[in-house]
């Protein structure tokens, strides 16, 4: 993970972001994102309010304006589920945003915060090992990589450069790559999943959010949007040297105990099919040299020598020596970003 640049002592740099908003902060943030037309209201000429007014939300939810103001100011005890349901409708929250909203508003049982996530089971290790024809890896709720097969290592060696974390890997992208809509889409998905799945009391979540919010303006903007969505499925832009630039689909499966198994798919006749087939051939033909690729649901990757057999490995504390040095990795990302921009006219 790249270190944040030193700031002059006379300046006050960005401060670590809060891991979880208060209920009032969430209400204000969601209210600011809605325009009158979104909820069937007519905006009067010269309106200067960004988003909806407090009284407009209160009226839409069918609660008193005074009570809604108390909610935003944090002057409340426990909100009823009936009020939460009304606010969910008023703020046009979808199912994922509503689930996160309820978690903020309703106190959780004390034991849920202290319950540790168990280690990856032997059964899941064997599943990853047997799933050798596709890149497969296991993540925890903070999107730290726990187990990966060799195809996944060939596809995603940037995890080691980013300290083994998917979200941090996304923000290794250079400015040229960040101009791509595909990068913003996948980075936003990773950040939203970090908020949705993360436990605000987890020191690891606090470390990730604190580090990225201090050193990366794009992360600060995405985290401040308050988006919260689970890891489910999607597509991510990928650059594979020897194959080209395109979209690769992925599917995330819940593993009991708080883990997630992410599988990269290769539908016949697609860029993903050609890319994964190329990686398979590379692993078979040259067990000490892997192909370079940048891809992930919010992550980036680069070239790395690959081991001979497709067996899952848990990441060691230190980055494996078979991965590229950070300087080589940065140069590769520059090439990947250039390839992505070159592919845009053909994609449109």
Write the layout of secondary structure elements.
Layout: H1 23-33, H2 54-61, H3 65-73, H4 81-90, H5 95-105, H6 110-114, H7 122-130, E1 136-139, E2 145-148, H8 150-155, H9 158-161, H10 166-170, H11 175-178, H12 181-197, H13 203-215, H14 217-224, E3 233-240, E4 244-255, E5 259-264, H15 271-285, E6 293-294, E7 313-314, H16 326-347
Antiparallel strand pairs: 1-2, 1-5, 2-7, 3-4, 3-6, 4-5
Helix pairs in contact: 2-3, 2-4, 13-14
Short summary:
The protein folds into two domains: 23-107, lambda repressor-like DNA-binding domains (434 Repressor (Amino-terminal Domain), Orthogonal Bundle); 122-347, Beta-Lactamase. Helices cover 45% and strands 11% of the residues. The chain has helices at residues 23-33, 54-61, 65-73, 81-90, 95-105, 110-114, 122-130, 150-155, 158-161, 166-170, 175-178, 181-197, 203-215, 217-224, 271-285, 326-347; strands at 136-139, 145-148, 233-240, 244-255, 259-264, 293-294, 313-314.
């Amino acid at each position: 993970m790249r270190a944040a640049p030193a700031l002059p002592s006379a300046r006050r740099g960005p401060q670590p972001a809060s891991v979880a908003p208060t209920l009032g902060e969430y209400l204000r943030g969601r209210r600011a994102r809605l325009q009158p037309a979104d909820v069937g209201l007519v905006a009067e000429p010269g309106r200067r309010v960004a988003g909806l007014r407090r009284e407009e939300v209160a009226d839409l939810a069918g609660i008193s304006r005074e009570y809604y103001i108390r909610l935003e100011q944090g002057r409340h005890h426990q909100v009823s589920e009936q009020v939460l349901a009304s606010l969910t409708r008023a703020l046009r929250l979808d199912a994922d945003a509503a689930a996160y909203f309820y978690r903020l508003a309703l106190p959780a049982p004390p034991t849920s915060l202290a319950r540790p996530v168990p280690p990856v089971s032997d059964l899941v290790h064997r599943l990853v090992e047997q799933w050798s024809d596709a890149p497969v890896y296991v993540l925890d709720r903070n999107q730290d990589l726990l187990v990966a097969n060799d195809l996944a290592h060939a596809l995603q060696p940037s995890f080691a450069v980013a300290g083994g974390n998917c979200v941090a890997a996304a923000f290794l992208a250079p400015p040229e790559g960040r101009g791509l809509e595909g990068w913003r889409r996948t980075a936003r998905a990773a950040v939203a999943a970090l908020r949705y799945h993360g436990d605000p009391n987890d020191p690891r979540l606090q470390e990730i959010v604190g580090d990225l919010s201090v050193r990366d303006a794009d992360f600060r903007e995405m985290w401040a949007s308050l988006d919260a969505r689970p890891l489910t499925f999607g597509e991510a832009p990928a650059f594979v040297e020897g194959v080209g630039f395109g979209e690769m689909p992925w599917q995330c499966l819940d593993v009991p105990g708080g883990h997630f198994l992410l599988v990269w798919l290769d539908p016949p006749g697609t860029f993903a099919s050609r890319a994964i087939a190329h990686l398979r051939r590379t692993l078979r033909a040259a067990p000490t040299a892997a192909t370079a690729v940048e891809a992930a649901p919010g992550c980036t990757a680069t070239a790395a020598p690959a081991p001979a057999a497709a067996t899952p490995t848990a990441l060691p504390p230190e980055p494996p020596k078979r991965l590229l040095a950070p300087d080589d990795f940065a140069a590769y990302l520059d090439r990947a970003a250039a390839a992505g921009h070159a592919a845009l006219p053909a994609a449109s």
